[in-house]
Known about the structure:
There is one protein chain. With 143 residues, the protein is an all-alpha fold. It has two domains: 22-72, no CATH class; 76-143, no CATH class. It has four helices and no strands. The longest helix is centred in the first third of the chain and has 18 residues, at 22-39. The site of flavin-adenine dinucleotide has 8 residues, from helix 4.
Amino acid sequence: xxxxxxxxATPPSIGYGYLSTPEDRRRMREVVRxxxxxxxxxxxGEVSGGLTEPGARVLGDDRLLDEWVLGHLGTSQxxxxxxxxxxxxxxxAAVDPxxxxxxxxxxxVADTSILPTPxxxxxxxxxxxxxxxxxxxxxxxxx
Length: 143
Ligand SMILES: Cc1cc2nc3c(=O)[nH]c(=O)nc-3n(C[C@H](O)[C@H](O)[C@H](O)COP(=O)(O)OP(=O)(O)OC[C@H]3O[C@@H](n4cnc5c(N)ncnc54)[C@H](O)[C@@H]3O)c2cc1C
């Protein structure tokens, strides 16, 4: 992720780097081809009306298949960790364990952006936990 401007209203530029290496593209082609093969089997007949795309010409050509994949690729990433918690002095750390922003009095962050590493599962429950922990700290007078 890159900051494009010092204006906080300007969204950051996020480059996931998908398919940027030959190995990434090879594996994705393999995924699509195996999936197409599976969908074409009689076992899938009950739940699938058959393969709609990519067609045989695209499936048989690495370059065309790369183009097809690039045109259809999306992400379900749960972004987090943009203001990670950690101790004062850690150049990556932006907030303390109570969500207080280092060096800015009275400002807290209480969402998944404070996670120092991405969780291994869907982050919704973790987001709720962060909110509860920060709210509890505020109730206890941790200022
Ligand atoms: C399509 C989709 C499906 C998902 N499915 C799952 C799932 O199945 N399981 C799972 O665990 N997780 C899932 N997640 C992830 C989960 O929803 C998020 O990780 C979680 O909601 C993050 O919580 P958060 O508080 O960090 O951010 P958010 O829920 O995004 O809350 C941020 C809040 O800040 C507000 N806000 C933004 N800017 C400002 C501003 N300038 N001033 C004031 N308020 C502002 C927004 O309106 C929003 O209410 C899914 C996410 C998506 C998008």
